[in-house]
Amino acid sequence: MHTRSLQRCLAIACLALCSVGIPVTANAHEYTLGSIKIGHPWARATTPGAQTGGGYLKLENNGAADRLVSVSANVSEAAELHSMSMEGNVMKMEKLDKGVELPAGKTVELKPGSLHIMLVGLKAPLKEGTSFPLKLKFEKAGEVTVDVKVDSLTAAPAAATDHKH
After folding, report:
1. 44 contact partners, CB below 8 Å, separation of at least 6
2. pLDDT tens across 64-107, in order?
3. Which residues, in sequence order, are CB contacts of 50 under 8 Å at separation 6+?
4. Hey, which residues does 71 pair with through a beta bridge?
5. In Å, what is the CA distance from 84 to each residue of 102, 109, 112?
6. What phi, psi does 18 have (nearest 5°)?
7. CA–CA separation, 29 vs 40, rounded Å?
8. What is the pTM of this model?
9. Across all residues in the chain, what is the average pLDDT?
């Protein structure tokens, strides 16, 4: 089989998998589940003894409204969806029991100081340069497991999304 024919067959197979809702990795760190594109899942490294960590990613919804209803990870006893805001000099954090809404045609970013994934009861510190699986469950799109890359303890949102793993 010629190289061009093989490339065409692989492209057709990828399109077929995407059309039936099977998650396909678009590149090393971007995922697609139905009409939802999941960009650069990452976490900050934690210090020894830390009991919690944070996870972040970008969700681009190119279809009908949906909702991220839950997350789970094997690196912690629990994984929860949270919002964080500042009211004056007081940080307010709230567990989102109903999940995170994903309006049709919109992008929602889970990032430090805002919506995020809280990893509760870490089993070991999150070490820079490692990764761990995170399962995302959506109300309509279904479930997908993504690979969360652990960045430095001081990684800023822009820096964490700019570099390649």
Report:
1. 53, 54, 112, 126, 150, 151, 152, 153, 154, 155
2. 999 999 999 999 999 999 998 888 888 888 999 999 999 999 99
3. 122, 125
4. 136
5. 18, 13, 8
6. -65, -35
7. 5
8. 0.77
9. 83
